[in-house]
Design a protein that fits this description.
Length: 224
């Protein structure tokens, strides 16, 4: 759990559907999509930021080693000792190799990629597997909580398997959308779909997610 700043908005629920085959067919399908109450701009609820300890630690170690080696060589040269061989080699390479040399271009591209990667790490929150949970009060200093997407998937899968007629189900949890794909071996497909939508919708509400994802439910007959 981490300290939060502001609770997320929770607009009204909107539901819309698109038709599918009826339950009379042996291998029919039915689908329904529901937009949850938390559907809205992503800046309504703030995600958790990763500490980036490993990249920061590796960068600090590399810079510390390079600067330490350079400082040691400078001090050694100032005190009358010969310059280290790597400085002579580096100066010779920079003086003799043209800018279009393969090694120069390769090193430049590698440095650009590493720099872009570090900028992306600095500007993105990370922790994509952690979904922020909502806050019921308006306290700006309230404690915020988060739940792992794997845990959400397991909870919703158990709820879906408890629906009568569901033989198997697969639940995919994203940051903006939750998709449930179920197989029903008896009952009308539309009835199973409606029960799944209710069960999963209640499960998502009880999880208390700060930004409720869009729920997509599809039901079909198992292949013979």
């Amino acid at each position: 759990m981490r300290g939060g700043t502001a609770p997320c908005d929770d607009p009204g629920r909107r539901t819309h559907g698109h038709g599918g085959a009826g339950g009379g067919r042996d291998r029919g399908t039915a689908a329904l999509t529901a937009a949850g109450p938390g559907e809205g701009p992503m800046n309504d609820c703030r995600r958790f930021w990763s500490a980036r300890r490993v990249p920061a630690g590796l960068t600090a170690l590399v810079l510390l080693g390079a600067l330490g080696l350079l400082l040691y060589d400078i001090v050694s040269a100032r005190t009358g000792h010969p310059v280290m061989e790597w400085r002579h080699w580096l100066a010779e390479q920079l003086a003799t190799r043209p800018l279009h040399d393969g090694w120069i271009v390769g090193i430049a591209v590698a440095l650009i990629v590493i720099g872009a990667w570090m900028v992306a790490l600095a500007l993105t929150p990370g922790l994509r597997g952690l979904l922020p949970m909502g806050d019921d009060d308006n306290d700006a200093h309230a404690i915020r909580a988060g739940i792992d997407r794997t845990a959400v998937r397991l909870v919703l899968r158990d709820r879906a398997m408890a629906v009568p007629g569901v033989r198997a189900v697969r639940v995919d949890v994203g940051r903006r959308r939750i998709r449930a794909r179920a197989q029903a071996h008896f009952r009308d497909l539309d009835e199973v779909r409606a029960d799944l939508l209710t069960a999963l919708g209640d499960g998502i509400r009880q999880l208390g997610l700060a930004r409720r994802p869009v729920l997509s439910v599809r039901v079909r007959r198992p292949a013979r």
